[in-house]
Amino acid sequence: MITQEELIMKSAFSRLDELFGDTLQILDHMKVDSEYQEKLDHIIKVLKEQKLKVGELSNYIDDKMITASSTMKSNLFELNKIVLQLEEGLLEDYKKSTENDIDQYEALPLEKQQEQEESYHNKIDYLSAVKIRDNIKEMQEIINSLEK
Known about the structure:
Layout: H1 4-29, H2 34-57, H3 62-97, H4 102-107, H5 110-115, H6 117-146
Helix pairs in contact: 1-2, 1-6, 2-3, 3-6
C-alpha cells in the first residue's frame, strides 16, 4: 500500500517532470539572435540533464535523495541566473524594437502587433524567458518541499 508521503512525492516528481517538459518545449520554440544562442543552448542542455535526474531522484530515499536534490537545486539556481541574464537582454531588444515604448506597442490590437514582426518576435522571446524563469522557480519550490 502506498503511504501518503509516497503519494505526495510521486505527485511532486510528476509535476517536476511536467515542468521540465513544458520548459524544454518553450525553449525549442524560441528563435533568439546569435548573441543569445549560446546561453539558450546551455539552458536547454542543463534542463535536459536535470529532467533525466528527476527520474533517478524518484528512486532515491533519505540521504541519497537529499544529496541528489541538493545538486539539482544548485544546478537550477545557476540556471536561473543565466535565464535572468537572457531575460534582461531580450527585454532590452524588445524595448529597442518598440522604440522604448512597450506599453504603447502592447496597447495595439494583436494583428497590428504581429505586423511589426521584429517587435512581436522580441515580445514572444522575452515572455518565453519570463515563463522559463517562473517554471524554474516552481521546480525549486517543489524540490524544497521534498527535502522537508
